[in-house]
């Protein structure tokens, strides 16, 4: 599997704790279900950052949301 080739990437199971927290996040921020699951998974696994291209996720304050486009512009690669 391609994702296993990334040494700093950890695949985690989505269980009841993620489901419960994602429901709370969805209610608080009005996120779509998949986005709430991503954020909840990051929180429960103590992620420092959440990297995405979805600018709407900037409303979430934990984990810190980094917009990929902004990162690339800052590095001069866009």
UniProtKB/TrEMBL annotation:
InterPro entries: PIN-like_dom_sf (IPR029060), PIN_dom (IPR002716)
Residue spans crossing the bilayer: none
Domain (PIN) ranges: 6-61
Gene3D superfamilies reported in the protein's UniProt record: 5'-nuclease
Protein name: PIN domain-containing protein
